[in-house]
Amino acid sequence: MEVWLWALIGILIAVIIALRIKVHILQKSVKEIETCFADRLITDTNTLIDISSNDRNLRHLANAINGQLRKLRTERRRFCQGDLELKNAVANISHDLRTPLTAICGYLELLEQEEKSEAVSRYIGIIQERVEILRQLSEELFRYSVIVSAKDNFVREQVIVNTVLEESIAAFYTVLTEKNIVPRIQISETKVIRTLDRSALSRVFSNLISNVIKYSGGDLKIVLSENGEIIFSNMAFGLDKIQTERLFDRFYTVETARKSTGLGLAISKTLVEQMGGTILAKYENKRLNIHIFFPESM
């Protein structure tokens, strides 16, 4: 009887050991799937998930994930191709617009030198105004096409963010005054130093201040904290939370922005992210708040 008991115990121990080995192999295979899946999501490779286990269910799971990865890879390539085509189209359109606009401006200058009635002078003035708007929009399209294709051409250096922000505000002082916007400025006395592209950072600030001029309800508050967070805040009665979520979308404009391509904030977002920072917009109590942050390691 004791022999059978010890035999049974031995069998149970063997089963437990086998089960533990099986569980260990399964855990290892699950970890392999997890690691490979995370890697395939961030790398552009044709290598699929492969596991060491021969377990039928786990291999079926790996094959199912591989099927979805193939679909995801196809969609990613289609998106990248479409994005590239869009960038090329924007560059071509902006370039093609420049030639006829230059010719129109030239002929308008010649017309200014001719004798004309008061009505004709007024019409020419209207045309000049519209042509100038088109010229500005074409320039914005061109700048966007250059920015999205030149992310590796940044000249990174130690930049004092305080100084660049102050210079950007000063550059818009006249325009802000004309719009009766008196900015409230809170800039930290502590120097906020980051390794950034000075020109790109200045472009970001300029685009944001231009955005305030278009949408502001008459005020502007700019805050630079010691931790490097920059906040542009203004009353924006024509916005809502849904519109705010789309402000950084390319070519998106709200109804009141009739003289904009909707690329200003998209350019800012692109530049900030290319420099390793974050930018987001919040709409609270009828105020538009745009937050920018560059980590200290920048």
Give the SSE map:
Elements: H1 2-42, H2 56-112, H3 118-149, E1 156-160, H4 161-171, H5 173-178, E2 182-187, E3 193-197, H6 198-215, E4 219-224, E5 230-235, H7 241-245, H8 264-274, E6 278-284, E7 287-293
Describe the structure.
With 298 residues, the chain is α+β, with helices and mostly antiparallel strands. Helix content is 61%, strand content 14%. The chain contains eight helices and seven strands, in the order αααβααββαββααββ. The protein has helices at residues 2-42, 56-112, 118-149, 161-171, 173-178, 198-215, 241-245, 264-274; strands spanning 156-160, 182-187, 193-197, 219-224, 230-235, 278-284, 287-293. It has a five-stranded mixed sheet with strand order 2-4-5-7-6. The protein is elongated, with a radius of gyration of 30 Å. The relative contact order is 0.07. The model has no long low-confidence stretch (mean pLDDT 80).
Mean pLDDT: 80
Main β sheet profile = 5 strands, mixed
Q: Would you report the number of β strands?
A: 7
Structural Rg: 30 Å
Distance between the termini: 76 Å
The parts where pLDDT drops under 50 for at least 5 residues are none
Q: How many individual helices?
A: 8
